[in-house]
Design goal:
The chain is of the alpha/beta class. Strand 9 and strand 10 form a beta hairpin.
């Protein structure tokens, strides 16, 4: 009987791997370097070799392994076809078929943000809910939508790309996606920092932030907690932008909870409370009771979700 499963979160710099029981206990985790040279052709063989080595190290057989779930930084169709992962050098190909042919293990592939959502619902902040929207506030804004236990992948694997909802037609700066005015330009870690730099450049308002050499989202939220007027205004605008966008998302998929993760989520209550305040202002009345909770798995959410994905394939 199969007892174990692997979760594999492929990033642009490192690949995070986790070795789990089928009940969700993380037994071991480690990282390998993501070799992106030669169009990323070595990435899957490297992952396969690392998993094989771990199976040998643990003294188990392949028959005891359910398979491996894999998260990648790009859109993925439900059949495992990756639609270009620029950060890995990959074009369009079926990762599931390729990995299974190398290892002989069953495989399930998904977008990394979607996998993190599965992880949080399985063993993290979303545990106990059957319908959640995961919101990852990091360098960008990622998302994952799970309704009645089913991941919403979409036709092109782009389901949950909430960071690219347009929230400002007047924006002149270009988002990484090529559009202007995307949610992540305001509510990601880099987004709120960009807003702070604008405010400090365009006004002469006093602020503790003027004494900070390298402004970060943490510095902004910390200053707001200390009562800094400019920082409070930045956090208020952040909450309004995010809350309004999530109110729109709720009208489409009506989740039980929004699970907020990523580096910005370390701000804690001030982030949740401000976002929730504006969510309540803008949301359709039937969705007013949606809960807001913080993610709890941190950087391990991806490997947890990948493990869960292969278990429910």
């Amino acid at each position: 009987m199969s007892k174990y499963v692997f979760g594999v979160d492929i990033g642009g710099t490192t690949v995070k791997l986790g070795f789990f029981t089928t009940e969700g206990e993380l037994l071991d985790k480690w990282e390998i370097t993501t070799r992106k040279d030669e169009g990323g052709k070595n990435i899957l063989p490297d992952v396969a070799a690392s998993i094989t080595a771990k199976i040998e190290e643990k003294g188990i057989s392949k028959d005891e392994v359910v398979g491996a779930g894999i998260g990648v930084p790009g859109p993925v169709r439900d059949d495992g076809t990756v639609l270009r992962c620029v950060n890995l050098g990959w074009g369009v190909f079926n990762v599931e078929t390729e990995f299974e042919s190398i290892t002989g293990l069953p495989c399930k592939v998904g977008n990394d943000a979607n996998m993190a959502s599965l992880g949080e619902m399985w063993q993290g902040g979303g545990k106990g809910f059957s319908s959640i929207v995961m919101v990852t506030l990091g360098t960008g804004v990622g998302g994952g939508i799970i309704i009645n236990g089913k991941m919403l992948y979409g036709t092109n694997g782009a389901g949950g790309e909430i960071g690219h909802i347009c929230v400002n037609d007047a924006e002149t700066d270009v988002c990484g996606c090529g559009k202007r005015g995307c949610l992540e330009q305001y509510t990601s870690a880099t987004g709120i920092t960009r807003m702070a730099e604008r405010a400090l450049t365009n006004t002469d308002r006093p602020s503790k932030l003027r004494n900070v050499q390298y402004i970060s989202a943490k510095e902004i939220f910390d200053a707001a907690k200390e009562g800094d007027d400019l920082a409070l205004e930045l956090v208020e605008n952040h909450g309004k932008t995010l809350g309004k966008a999530l109110a729109t998302v709720a009208c489409v998929c009506d989740p039980e909870a929004f699970v907020i993760g990523g580096g910005v989520s370390r701000a804690g209550d001030i982030l949740i409370e401000t976002t929730q305040k504006y969510y309540q202002q803008y949301v359709f009345h039937a969705c007013k009771n949606t809960k807001f909770v913080l993610a709890t798995l941190g950087n391990d959410a991806g490997i947890y979700g990948c493990a869960e994905a292969i278990l429910t394939k």
